[in-house]
Every structure is written in C-alpha cells, then in structure tokens.
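Table S5 (text form). Sequence records supplied for joint modeling of the two-component complex.
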Amino acid sequence: MLAKRIIPCLDVRNGQTVKGINFVNIREVGDPVEMGANYAEQGADELVFLDITASHEGRKTFVQLVKRIALHLNIPFTVGGGIGELSDIEALLAAGADKVSLNTAAIRNPELINRMALNFGSQFVVTAIDAKEENGVWTAYINGGRIPTDKELFSWARECEDRGAGEILFTSMNHDGTRNGFACEALSRLSESLSIPIIASGGAGNMEHFAEVFTSGKADAGLAASIFHFNEITVPQLKSYLAERNIPVRL
Amino acid sequence: MNVAIIKYNAGNIMSVDYALQRLGITATVTDDHDIIRTADRVIFPGVGEASTTMHYLRERKLDLLIAGLKQPVLGICLGLQLMCRYSEEGNTRCIGIFRENVLKFSPSGSPETRLKVPHMGWNKIHDLTSALFRGELENQYAYFVHSYYAATGTETIALCDYSVPFSAALKRDNFYATQFHPEKSGRPGSQILKNFLEL
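The corresponding structure-token record, covering 450 residues in total, follows.
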C-alpha cells in the first residue's frame, strides 16, 4: 500500500535554514544540507526547501545549495520560493531538484505549468496554492499570502491538474500558524475532486492533526515546519503514532 | 570500476550520478557509444515521456546500442519502461528487451477509494527474486513516481501493488530494471545500487 508521506519544510535565507513563527523573530539555525540529511535519517519521506531570499545574488546561492542537497540527500526533495522563469526551473532541475513548486508564477502565468509538464514531466511540477476562506469562498492568494487573486481554490486546483501539474500543495491561510489542525474539509473536497496527490499544509500542532488529515482530510502527504524544527514532534514519534492507528506510513 | 550513465533528454540523470558518488563511484554521464559499450556497468535512468524519448534514442541509435550490451545494465523508471516491448504512453514501440507491455494506471472507483495517478511516493516491494535485492530488502519501501507500469510476467523479479500487482523490477540475462528510483529510496535504494555494482 502506498504510504502517507510526512514532509518537513525548511525555509532557507541566504543559504541558511531559518526558523521563525509567522515570519517574526527569524533566526538562522544552520546548514540546510545537514538539517535535511538529519530529517532523512529520521525517516522523513520527502523534504521541501523554500527559498525566502529576496535578492538576485541569493538566488544563485540557492542553486548552489540545491546541488549540495542533491548530492547528500537520498530521498526526494522539492524546491520552491520566488520561481518565475523557465530558466530558473531549468537551473534547479540541472542542480538535481526532484520537483519544483510554483505559486505566484503559476497564477500570473498558468501556461508555465503546461510548459514545465511538457519539458520535464508532470512529476516535476508541484503547484502550491495559498488560499483563504471568507464567507464560504476559498480565494487563492499570491506573494506569500499578501495579494488576493480572482482564482477560487477548487477551480484553480482543477485547472492546475488539467494543465499538467503532478501534485497540489495546499496551504490554508486560515489554519496556517494556528496549530489547531489542518483544513480537513477543504482538503477532503480537493482530494475527491482531483486525481493527482494532495499535500496538506498549514495548521499542524500535534500528532492527532496528522491522523485527521490522512483520514478525514484524505490527504496524500502532510507538510509542517515549526513543530519539527522545534522538536515538539519528531518524525519517528509521529510515524509510530500513525502506524498504531493503521495509517500506512513508511517505518 | 567504470560506470556509464546514459545521457539523454530526460530528467533525474544527475540524481543517479550523485547516488553513485555517495557510494564512492565516479560515473561518466555520456551518450558516447564507445564509452558505453566498454563500461563495466551501464545505467539507463530517466523520467520523461516515452514516445519523445524513444524518438531521441533512435535518432542517436542508442536503442540498438542498449539492446546489444553484454555487461550488467540497470534501467530505472522510464528506463525500465523503454526496455519493454511496447508502451501505451504515446502508443510507442520500445526497445523490446523485456517481453512485458507498459500500461497506464486508470483512476477508477468511487471518489472515496479512487487511486491517485501518478503513483507517487513510497510503496513496498515484495516477492524479490534476484541478487539485485540481496540484504533483507523484502517488504522494504521504495520511492515510485510513474503513471504507467509494466505488467507482471516471467521476467518479473520484484512486485509492487497499486490497484493491480505490477513489476517493480524486471530481469533478463544481463538486463535489470527497476520501476522505482533506487537513487531516491533511502538506505534500501543505496543497497540495491551497491548490489548492482557487485553483480
């Protein structure tokens, strides 16, 4: 049986992993390669590295970093953050990234999804959608959740699949940072309406939340950052908890 | 040991090179016929679309070269599929080393139980019957990413289940192939690559 995936997410700025709660009090905490390898050793199924560097120089550093990650890591990893051009994507693929996640760029230029899928294959394309529910409507946001768009979550996710995306990484802005659990209702609707895998993000606060997201939320993978970074939950603890509840995980 | 990784228009080639580097092997990523023919081991990796890739290989006569190799050869993912006879992806006639045909997973069933396609993530490999899987690998998890699969047959040396049992690995003579990515499958994956080098 296909295992549910546990995915720690690492934010990278100027080549260093950073930790912060809601972007406040960001601290640099170490080498992303070392931290990534450590998570892999603990049993993480995949990793996501998000580049939160703003400068152009920082982008070049990130490509170098991706090369080092690919050389050291023996599990798949996705890279994302501020990717806008096909040339950025080619550089990341050549450096050894397994998947690239597109967010703002996909909404601004949906054709990019088709071109990526055609050039590199759907398995390489993760569409990240940040969405917020207001009055029963889920609206997709861009620029790190700052700018609302005219895209509605479910129809946009469907469009991404039709254009060739291989996975959807859905972050609920209503749940992100609350630690009160994932957006299980929206996730389950998303999962049932699409045939590609759904990665759930936003709201993880304890192990029960992961059990919920894989059962009632019907997610294929669960992503979290701070609970892993601050060692509140370790990957092995979480996996044995899920296994005890008959949720298929790779032990 | 000389290891050649066949270079063609597909993704994930560097990943295989990196995985070998972790085992202390510096491979040559090349499409040079002589280097490939004289290597001790040949790896045929790849992620991509079957018909365009076969077209690319035929233009460079790499299909004939691969079929004629005598040393141990390891196909990975699309590599496995292209070593089969025929693929439903783009209605493609493939290299034909293995007798099996490559079929598409069809998302079927109710929304509640429907399987996602691609088959993406970690799944168990079992019924292992080859020296490629030495070292307690039965029922270990391997990393898969694919929408098409090789059916099971006499050349199957490992099984995986995803709505149907399919060939997680195939073998004929000196030709081996895995549908999963050993280069991304953690320790079991490294073990399989190591086993291949020691065949």
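Note: Chain A has one domain: 5-244.
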